[in-house]
User: Which sequence fits this backbone?
């Protein structure tokens, strides 16, 4: 009997006397359940920590397909202002590479500084307009060599995602970027402030493309603005000869035609099936080149510094 009491005391830690056997079992099971509870909680927490540590991004976030934004730009007084405005729009968009391509023979450190300051991932390249087009008195193929340089970059470096031609002077609602990210071939949508119609848009009836609305059709198969379409990188790479022609007014049409075969039923219509306007063909007033600074008169002032930040043609 004595031995029994000693054993019970040893296991339960409860000082027992008389009919203490039941009390001791209760204490024992409480301790057991507590131990199981604490152990389970610890194991769960450890597993959760491990799971989190394996995730490249915050829990619940998935990697979105990349966006390649091809922006032609050229030297002029408004250049840094335009790139600043566009850059801060793009800063709201994740997994994006901004391909800034200047119509020039060499890069401009001022542009590089602005791009660095904005902080959007970018590549800054040059692609000059061929001399014969530069000399012409007629309309020039603006931004074409730049965009073709962008396409060449994508053929070399990109495997998935979507490309979009974003001129440096337009206005973009960031929701269009999230919509274009998931397209399978080509997508189109309306662009505001284009021609006398005030908007250029595919015409959709019963969910189908029935034509295009634009103040200038000009015999084009795809009378759309540069800001009104996006193309999947995979689809582009399946068409190794696709490029933009040096043909003023027909750049968009020529490029989209070069993506053949492309059936109109394969085109996706974004911006609420073209019932909304998310991009605008805004145009900035041209500014005269800044006059030369009188360096003697303003010697040793801040003007010596800001004068170096002015882009003169
Ligand atoms: C319109 C279209 O929106 C353009 O996409 C199209 O290229 C152009 O017409 C055309 O057909 O020539 P628009 O506003 O008239 O554009 O032209 P800009 O904004 O002056 O130029 C379009 C893009 O090319 C801009 O990103 C601009 O920075 C660039 N660009 C312009 C050059 O790279 N070099 C130039 O000499 C002029
Ligand atoms: Mn423009």
Assistant:
């Amino acid at each position: 009997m004595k031995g029994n009491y000693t054993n019970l005391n040893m296991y339960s830690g409860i000082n027992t006397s008389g009919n203490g056997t039941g009390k001791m079992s209760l204490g024992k099971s409480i301790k057991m359940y507590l131990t199981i509870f604490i152990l389970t909680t610890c194991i769960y927490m450890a597993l959760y920590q491990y799971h989190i540590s394996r995730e490249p991004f915050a829990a619940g976030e998935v990697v979105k397909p990349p966006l390649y934004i091809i922006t032609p730009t050229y030297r002029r007084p408004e250049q840094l202002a335009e790139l600043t405005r566009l850059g801060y729009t793009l800063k709201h968009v994740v997994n994006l590479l901004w391909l800034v391509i200047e119509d020039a023979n060499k890069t401009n450190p001022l542009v590089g500084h602005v791009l660095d300051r904005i902080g959007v991932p970018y590549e800054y390249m040059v692609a000059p307009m061929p001399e014969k087009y530069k000399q012409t008195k007629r309309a020039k193929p603006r931004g074409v060599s730049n965009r073709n340089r962008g396409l060449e970059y994508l053929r070399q470096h990109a495997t998935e995602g979507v490309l979009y031609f974003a001129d440096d002077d337009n206005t973009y609602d960031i929701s269009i970027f999230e919509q274009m990210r998931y397209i399978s071939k080509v997508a189109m949508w309306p662009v505001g402030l284009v021609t006398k119609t005030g908007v250029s848009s595919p015409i959709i009836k019963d969910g189908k493309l029935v034509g295009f609305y634009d103040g200038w059709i000009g015999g084009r198969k795809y009378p759309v603005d540069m800001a009104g379409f996006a193309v999947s990188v995979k689809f582009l790479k399946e068409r190794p000869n696709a490029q933009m022609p040096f043909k003023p007014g027909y750049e968009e049409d020529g490029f989209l035609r070069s993506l053949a075969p492309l059936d109109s039923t394969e085109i996706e219509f974004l911006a609420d099936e073209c019932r909304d306007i998310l991009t605008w063909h805004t145009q900035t007033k041209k500014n005269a080149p800044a006059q030369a600074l009188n360096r003697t008169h303003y010697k040793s002032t801040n003007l010596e510094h800001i004068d170096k930040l002015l882009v003169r043609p």
In short: The pocket of uridine-5'-diphosphate-glucuronic acid (ligand 1) is lined by residues 72-74, 103, 129, 140, 142-143, 146, 167-169, 225-226, 248-249, 251, 281, 283 (CB under 6 Å). The chain is about 35% helix and 15% strand.
